Every structure is written in C-alpha cells, then in structure tokens.
Amino acid sequence: MKLITLAILSSLMTFSATAAVPGRITLKIDSQKAEVHLTGVKAGDRVSLMEEICEGPRVKLCRTNKVGEAVVSKVINSETSEITADGKQPLKENLLVEKK
After folding, report:
1. How far apart are the C-alpha atoms of 33 and 29, rounded to whole Å?
2. Mean pLDDT, each 10-residue run in order, the chain (100 residues)
3. Which of 12, 36, 73, 82 has its CA 20 to 30 A from that of 99?
4. 69-78: which pairs have CB atoms within 8 A and are 24 or more residues apart?
5. How much is the pLDDT for 15?
C-alpha cells in the first residue's frame, strides 16, 4: 500500500514539474511584434497567445482564452525572445504566451 501511494505521488510530482509554464509579453514593439519572457524556446517555435480574464466580486476566478498564435522570430537571451503575431489580432502587453 505504501509503495502504491509513493508511486502515485512520484508520478504527480513529475507531471507538475514538466507542465508548460506560460510566459508574458513584456514589451510591445508594434502591433505585430513584441518581446516575451519565456524560457526554452528557439527561433521558429510556434506559441499560443492567451488572455487571462478574472471575474468575481470577492474571490477572483480566472480563466484563459486563446486569442491568437505567433512565431518566435528572434531569441535575445535564455529568458527573453521576440515574437511576431500571425493574423490581424494586435498584440497587447501582459498577454500570456505558451509554447505549443
């Protein structure tokens, strides 16, 4: 029984450690380009752009809506990259960015 519990806890910890961690748009360059804080990407990677919407009078319940996609056009350093948005959706600061 202890062995089964240990195996379950171990697999849950491994899953949460490998889950995708979203970054954020930190600097909007123009309507289609922006700098993002996102680790583990390289030029040409595709990313999803998501808007976080929080509602509620006392306790804020938050959800994310996908609003577009972009391509990593340039890697500046290990934590910062430049993205170019696909389509006509203009970029906004503080959008969440997640590697596909």
Report:
1. 5
2. 57 49 91 94 95 90 94 96 90 91
3. 12
4. 69/100, 70/46, 70/97, 71/44, 71/45, 71/46, 71/47, 72/41, 72/42, 72/43, 72/44, 72/45, 72/46, 72/47, 73/33, 73/43, 74/43, 75/41, 75/42, 75/43, 76/35, 78/39
5. 43
DSSP 94: T
In one-letter notation, the amino acid at residue 66 is K
pTM (two decimals)? 0.74
pLDDT on residue 2: 59
Residues 58 and 10 sit within 8 Å (Cβ to Cβ) = no
Q: How far is CA 75 from the centre of its chain?
A: 16
